[in-house]
Amino acid sequence: MPTVTFPGRPLASYPVLSIFYRLFYSSTIIARLPAWILSYALFRRARPLPTWSFKQSIMLRILTESIFMVSRTQTPTSLSLEPGKDKERWEKLEPFPKDVYRGPLDHASVEPSTMGGKWYPEKPTDASAIGPVLLHIHGGAFVVGTGRANQDGIMADLFIKHGKVGYIFVPQYLCPVPAALQDLVTSYLYFVRTLGIPASNITISGDSAGGNLVIGLLRYLAEYGAELNIPQPKSAVILCPWVAPVKSLWPEFVVTSNPNFRTDYLGAELCRWGAATYIRDAPPEHPYITPLGHPFKTPVPMLVTFGSAEIMVIDGLEWVKEMERVDGNEIEAYIEPDVPHDTLLVGHILGFEESSAGVARKMGKFIRQHA
């Protein structure tokens, strides 16, 4: 097994230097843009995939470079418990009694804390009678993302328009381990205990890093749900999950040698920053951090989706096979051909709107089949 190393803080991440670095790197993107435009316009084979349009190719390149810049400056998304523009759609959640946070969630220095989340399209007036509801865990490599409209509003609209999903709640969780999973348990108990939503009406979903956390929550409910009297959700939709964050702490070539590295916008810098931030001093191979290699039994039917051109699909499908081999598990994999990571999140930016709508439709069909 390769050696796990935690990266030091890049010089570009220090406040004053980060400003200059962003200005400098932005200028290099602008300087290289004409060459990319010319190359992708004239030579289809120069595109990440020959089947991609000019827009898809150029936008993926710009997004990749932008993510690299943000990762070098390590500028996380700031979180706030204030409603702000979300007003009445924002909900503040208090932690439950400490005895519901057991095992890997019982940490000497990381206590469950107050958290927030947003309802889409609006906060229900009687949550116990709203029918099927979605608890969605946002992605962002554990370092960016808030669950608010500026990041997840488009995704929520896709769930509602194409997936025919009713109400959606997106919690804003904290890192590192185990704070994020503590927040997920708080969110799920908010549904079943505070609001009185029947577990048979609840689907848990998550994209990318959020998919990793959904797997962790399913494991926690499988291991501790019965003794804590926490019911299992009806189904789970796991979108492009990050099943092996530990590999991003291995030598960089582990990521750059991935056969889909050129066709995805996720770079080694973002993955390494996110993994190091989330894991910190926890064992990187712990089952709640790295699902790959640690299958478990769950009664919850699962839909797992990937893009065939993303870097996470290889490990992800290996994890699906591991879970399929566990007697009693019900898991279905859906692969979108020739698309990068998490088009539900960025398809409108990259020009993969058809893909994102297709994933949302598949998601909605799966939820209704298990309603």
From TrEMBL:
Gene Ontology molecular function: hydrolase activity
Alpha/beta hydrolase fold-3 domain sequence ranges: 134-343
Tree of life domain: Eukaryota
Statement: the UniProt record of this protein carries the keyword Hydrolase: yes
Active-site positions on this chain: 208
Keywords tagged on the record: Hydrolase
Family under the similarity heading: Belongs to the 'GDXG' lipolytic enzyme family.
PANTHER family for this protein: AB HYDROLASE SUPERFAMILY PROTEIN C4A8.06C (PTHR48081), ALPHA_BETA HYDROLASE FOLD-3 DOMAIN-CONTAINING PROTEIN-RELATED (PTHR48081:SF8)
Descriptive protein name: Alpha/beta hydrolase fold-3 domain-containing protein
Organism: Xylaria bambusicola
The organism's taxonomic lineage, starting at the top: Eukaryota, Fungi, Dikarya, Ascomycota, Pezizomycotina
